[in-house]
Amino acid sequence: MTDASSSAADGAALSFVIYTDGGADPNPGPGGWGAVVLPDGRENDRRELSGSAADTTNNRMELTAAIEALTALDDGSRVVLYTDSQYLRNGITKWMPGWRRQNWQRKGGALKNVDLWRRLDALTAHHTIDWRWVKGHAGDRWNERADALATEGVRAARASAPAATSSAAKRPAKRQPSADAPVDAEAFLAVSCPKRTGGWSAIVCRADDETQLGDRLDGVTANRLELLAAADLLERLLDDGARRVAVHGGSDYLRKGAALWLPGWRRKGWKTASGGALKNVDAWRRIDAIQRRLRVDWLRGDNDVSAFDADAVAARLDQANARAQARARDAS
């Protein structure tokens, strides 16, 4: 991994090295962003920028962090900008030309966060920028500092934000999923639950959009956290209009229960095969109700459903696991 000092050494004309991060907790919900700006990579002259928003998303905060950092520079600056957001890096380096050609629309319709993408596009015209991805929560000093600034922003926003309304109160009309429906989204799910308090995280990938979801919970076992995380994830995807999703990650307990055992439990009145009480029955019934309206492919290993190869799946599961562990540490 490349740190700021070695980045500056790559070329004497480099003006700034920037690390940005942003997030919302829960997503959507109170959010914060942070940026570390190092002139020529010099840590002693660094500037730290941060901010918050009462009701936002992970992606909006990631974009805002980059926008605010670039806005703070003089025109004509040369920049190496590090982000742990594939959504930000891919958007600016891969997807932006197509969005411009399509008058700021996606192939499937409206472009999310179009106001921020257009601001960022305008800013890039004033600077020479090398966009680089850095793995989050992996020990990079300045990525960790940007994350800490963003987390401080989340806490500040949460302290002043009104109580959030659960998305579960806004259910769409019931519908049956089509067996032939295309996969609308792929989700990479991870949980971390030390000492009955933990967090979960999911990276959700659509055609040209990548978002991050997650939350933290107290007083749960690892199995219960995983079921509640899966239910929350699937409910959000259903609320967003998905008809079929693929989920990577999760234990055999979740995958086999959701894909194989639920019909039998339902027939037996939510009892086990021996007639005993089914643990976490409320969470299992939530997942069962969702799967009556949303087709879910529970993936593990080789398959003909995913658009990602094994390395890409592993990388996203690593990212989700790192964020889940961070949420668990924050909750403890």
Tell me briefly what this model is.
The protein is an alpha/beta fold.
Structural class from helices and strands?
Answer: alpha/beta
What helical percentage do the residues reach? 40-55%
Largest beta sheet: strand ordering? 3-2-1-4-7
Question: What share of the residues does DSSP label as strand, in percent?
Answer: 25-35%
Series of secondary-structure elements, N-terminal to C-terminal: HEEEHEHEEHEHEEEHEHHEH
Shape: globular
Provide the residue-averaged pLDDT.
84
Distance between the termini: 29 Å
Question: What count of helical segments does DSSP give?
Answer: 9
* Quaternary structure: single chain
Would you report the number of β strands? 12
Rg is 21 Å
Strand count, sense and barrel status of the largest sheet are: 5 strands, mixed
Given as residue ranges, the uncertain stretches (5+ residues, pLDDT < 50) are: 1-13, 163-180
